[in-house]
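Troubleshooting log. The previous structure file for this entry was overwritten by mistake, so regenerating from the original sequence record. Sequence copied from the archived sheet and checked twice against the printout by T.R.
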Amino acid sequence: MATTPPSHPARPGATPPLSIGERLRRARQERGLSYAEAAALTKLKPTYLEALENGRYQELPALFYAKNFIQIYGNVLGLDGKQLAQEFGAQHTIEVALPPAHQPGVSYHISIGIGRMLQRPLFLVSGAVVLVVIVMYLAGGTGRGGGAVTISTPDDTARIMAEYQPVFDIHEPLPALP
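Regenerated output below.
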């Protein structure tokens, strides 16, 4: 049962004021609008409009939408939507629970740690040295062989070609497939 809105004090012998939903329904019917037509004008689902008119606010996605929906619906129907929304707010306590505080994950702490290390000059110098050593190792400049071969004379070319061992001989037939 709806409580008496503060803007309409009860007077002895007077008829009780209409509820917000009844006023919305009456305004819609006076304009000859169906729920579908009103929904097209308000961009709200027809089931939400019907729920507003019948005071079934639990059928809305959440109670805090009701106040805004009432204002939109009232304005479209030519009523003072802001006043209707204020009446609704005075009649209903809307509590919105905030989500729990976000706890940063491990990756956040790692990235912060790396960022702090990169701000220190000693870390940058040692990181550059390690990077140069890795690049030299991968390029084969370690002095242990396996690096690039320099050819300076035609005799070197002949020697290298004589030592070359191919992985397979192109004159051998390929193995049969199973």
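The helical segments are 20-30, 35-42, 46-54, 63-76, 81-91, 106-118, 121-139, 154-163. Archived copy saved in two places this time.
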